[in-house]
Amino acid sequence: MITSTQESKINKMNRAAQDASLGTMVKGFQASGSHLVSAAEASASAVVINSGLGTIHGQIVQNVRSGSLAFTSASQIGISNASGSLTIIGKAAGVISTNDVINYILIP
């Protein structure tokens, strides 16, 4: 976790590079991780990940099964976010399975 002090130091260090706020950008991408789908989530065909963020403005989600993408079309999966939680819902049979790995990057 990057602290506000570290963020400030990175921003100061980066000022020479066209005054971009690198620390702020890096800190913003800390809301990422992986989630292993449980049997209960697979049965419900829904996974809810509490990000700890107040608001999510965007997300990148990847569902991996046995080393390959489990879905290849947006019509197979529903993704929504509200109140800092990311919800992934399977729209087709077998889209979300036990032991799938959901990788995500959230943009606060």
Tell me the fraction of residues in β-strands, as a range: 35-45%
Average residue pLDDT: 82
Order of helices and strands: HHEHEEEEEE
In the sheet with the most strands, the strands line up as: 1-7-3-4
- Helix content estimate: 10-25%
Number of helices: 3
What's the number of domains? 2
What is the subunit arrangement here? Answer: single chain
Report the structural category: alpha+beta
What shape does the CA trace take?
elongated
Task: Please describe what this structure looks like.
There is one protein chain. By secondary structure, the protein is of the alpha+beta class. The protein folds into two domains: 1-30, no CATH class; 31-107, no CATH class. 22% of the residues lie in helices and 36% in strands. It contains three helices and seven strands. The chain has helices spanning 4-14, 22-28, 39-44, and strands at 32-36, 46-50, 58-65, 68-69, 77-82, 85-90, 101-107. The strands form two sheets. A four-stranded antiparallel beta sheet has the order 1-7-3-4, with no helix packed on it. Strands 2-6-5 form a three-stranded antiparallel beta sheet. A hairpin with a 2-residue loop joins strand 3 (58-65) and strand 4 (68-69). Helix 1 (4-14) packs across helix 2 (22-28). The protein is elongated. 15% of the residues are buried.
